[in-house]
Amino acid sequence: MQFSEKRNLTRWIIIISSFLIASLILWNTYVFFQTFKEEERNKMELWAKAQKTLMNSDVDTEIELPSFIIENNKNIPLILTDRKGKILSNLNLGEIENDSVKVKEVLNKIKSQNAPIKVQFAKNDYHLVYYGDSPILNKLKYYPIALLLVVFLFGGVVYNFYRATKMATQNKLWAGMAKETAHQIGTPLSSLIGWLELLKLENIDDTTIEEIQKDINRLQTITDRFSKIGSEPVLEKRNIIEETKASFEYLQSRVSKQVTFDFRAPEKPLFVSLNPILHSWTIENLVKNAIDAMKGKGSLSIEIVEGDANVYITVTDTGSGIAKNKFKTIFEPGYTSKKRGWGLGLSLTKRIVQEYHKGKIRVVHSEIGKGTTMQMIFKKES
Questions:
Q1: Count of CB atoms within 10 A of residue 53's CB?
Q2: Taking the alpha carbons of 352, 353, 355, 361 in that order, is the dihedral positive or negative?
Q3: Virtual torsion, Cα 306, 307, 313, 318, nearest 10 deg
């Protein structure tokens, strides 16, 4: 049996065992509650008999035991009525025992808790003893609820711990894979740089050399991106308009002419603390997602707006759109609408924006078949 299968089996054994233990405790609590409730009824029946004896007795020596039984009830609330429902007396009702209105309210309440006990004096002469649950019994009612809350709380703690451990393991795995990818790209990239230098000596057209140089620079950027995963990036005070526009123009020159690009931003620079390499990655992910949503044909715009304390970058496309209930789901690892894809692009983008740059990213608006507007928010530097 593989390690992962053993771990899953152990997890299910723990879950089932916890469920059985909780069920056993709840069942025992229920049995104890019913037993305690039966004991209280026996006490009330004994009290009713003592009341009958006391009312029928004419000899003082015969009332000692009934009086003791009646006076010994200090916990169970009760109300004594005649056969017509007239309240004759009450016991253990606290401060309301002299308030006839509130005593009647209590009577209506305890009628639903326990069946009354009949104290028969003659054929058509009897009293009824109505009694409620004692304070101890009332507390016992809520014990299972408190127990379930503790069980759920414990389960939540275990789940969050397991989830955090799993995410930490996945993060280490992805970071290791990313760094290994950067290392593997580095070797052929060094060779490409050498070959480019040889091409320059062969009098190749400058435009061709320039385009090859751009792609090599791009590969170096990608290598830097992957090498930074799993480590704390260095943030620099940069003009976010300039950094965003550079990534936007690079992608524009390499995308189908069927996509119309539009870039709008203030003429003055706006400074933000960011990592240029990681920021270009977020722009690339958002633009590529937008192009995929439009199936390579449509309009895409990026607008940068200055606020009082923040800088807002809005990416709008005319693609397939996103359902409203998926606005948050799309940022989760593994979510993808493509047949091929691992669903890491937007998850990584969110991490770069929120964890590394302390910004925010969200879906502002989306409509199925009409397009989507995404927005990133960064704190403005003076």
A1: 16
A2: negative
A3: -100
CA atoms within 13 A on the CB side of 78: 25
Residue 216's identity, in one-letter code, is I
Residue 304 lies in a domain: yes
| Cα three-residue angle 261-263-266, rounded to 5 degrees | 170
Question: 70-119: per-residue pLDDT in tens?
Answer: 777 778 888 888 888 888 888 888 888 788 888 888 888 888 888 888 88
Is the pLDDT confidence value at 334 over 70? no
Residues 375 and 254 in one domain: yes
| β-bridge mates for residue 376, sequence order | 313, 361
Q: How far is CA 361 from CA 174, 276, 330, in A?
A: 22, 17, 12
Contact criterion met (CB below 8 Å) for 252 and 305: no
Pick from 231, 250, 269: which residue ends a domain? 231
- For 189-235, the pLDDT digits (tens) are 777 777 778 777 777 777 878 878 877 877 777 777 677 666 678 89
For residue 161, being part of any structural domain is answered with no
CATH code of residue 323: 3.30.565.10
Distance CA(351)–CA(359), nearest Å, equals 10
Number of domains in the chain: 3
